[in-house]
Amino acid sequence: MAAAAGMAALCGRLRGVLRLGSAAAGIPGSTLSLFHKSLVQVEPLHPLRFLHTTLSQKGLEEFFDDPQNWGEKAVKSGDAWNIKQLRGKSSEDLHKLWYVLLKEKNMLLTLEQESKRQLRPMPSPERLEKVKKSMKNIDLVVREREIALRLLQTGHEKPVPGEWRHDFLGRTYWYTYKEWPIPWYLNKKYKKRRFYYLPHVNHFIRLRLEKALRRRVRRRNLERKRQKVLKRKFPHLAVKSQSH
Amino acid sequence: FFMLAVRPGVPQPEDTVQFRVSMQMTKVDIKNYLEKIYNVPVAAVRTRIQYGANNKRNHKNQRVKKPDYKVAYVQLGQGQTFQFPNLFPEKEQDTETQSFDDFKNKYMEREQQKQKGDPRRGGVPDWFGL
C-alpha cells in the first residue's frame, strides 16, 4: 500500500502481479491503476525490470476498496476499456489485466452485498458495469486472436467442424459435428431427427420472415421518430450535413 | 468464477472467512483461487448451497425466485485472523450537505409548529368546545 500514495487521481489499485519496478522507484503516474492505459509504459525501466513486489497484507484486503474510500458517497473511476484499445495490447498484458479486473469485480460485488446488508446505497455502482464490459471486451479480443491463429495454422476458423442444416420447422442453423462411438446410420435416436422440412412449412417460413421484417422496420422507424423529436426540441444541436 | 466476501450472519471463529462463490466452484477450486490469485494461505474450506426462496409474488401474482448461491467457509492457515470491516464509517459531511441538512431540519420544525394548535390552550386539542 506504500506505493498507493503516489497514485493518480483515478481510482486505482496496485497489483503485485505486475512488475512494479516503477512503483518501487516512486514515480507517480506510471503505477498501474484499473482504468489507466499505461500498461505498456510500466515496462521500460531496465534496471528494475526483474523486481517483484509482494502483495500487501496477504491479500484479503483486496476484497475491499482503499480504506480512504469507505463511507464515501461516490468514488471516481475512469472509463471502461475499449476493444480498439485492447487490440493493441500484448497477450501477457491482457492476461494481467484480466486478473486485475477480476479482483476489482470481486471487490465491487463484496461492496454491493455489504451495502444491501447495511441498507445503504452502494457508492458508484457504474464501476461494476464498466468492469464487466472491459472483461467482455478482453474475451472478444482473445477470441479474435485465437480464430486468426487457427486460420493461419489450419485454415479453419471454428475449432469443431460443422455445417448449416435445416430443422423440421424450416429454420436454418449451424450444426456442429459431435463425437459418437457409432456411425449415424446405426443411431436410432439420431435417425428419428429430421434435418429437412415438408412443403407445408413454407407458409410458416413466410410468416416468420414477415414478422422479422416488420420488427426491423418498426425499430428503424422508431429510431427515426426519436431523432426527429430531439431535433425539434434542440435545433441548435442538430448535426449539420455537409453541403456538397 | 467470482468470489465475494460477506459479513457472517452467525458469529464465526476468528480464522473463518465467509464467501459467496460461483455455484460451479468446488472446495479445491476455492482453495486454489485464494492461494494463487489472492496469495492467502488456506487451511480448510467447507461449502454449502443456499436455496433462494420462491414465495414472493410480483404484481402479476407470479412467483419470483430469489437466486440460489453457494456459501464457502474458509479457514485461514498460518494462524491468521480476519474481522469483517465496517465499510460505511461515519464521515464528516462537507459544508454543502451540512447546510442542506440544517435547512431540512428547520423546514420540518416550522411544519410541526404549524400543526400545533393555539399555544394558549395548553396542548388541549380543538375538539373540545371553547
From TrEMBL, chain B:
Q: Which InterPro entries match?
A: Nucleotide-bd_a/b_plait_sf, Ribosomal_uL23-like, Ribosomal_uL23/eL15/eS24_sf
The UniProt entry, under Pfam families, shows: Ribosomal_L23
Q: Where is this region: Disordered?
A: 85-130
Choose one Gene Ontology CC annotation of this protein and give it. Answer: mitochondrial large ribosomal subunit
Q: What is its main location?
A: mitochondrion
Provide a Gene Ontology MF annotation, just one: structural constituent of ribosome
Listed under GO biological process in this entry are:
mitochondrial translation
Name assigned to this protein: Large ribosomal subunit protein uL23m
Taxonomic classification:
Eukaryota, Metazoa, Chordata, Craniata, Vertebrata
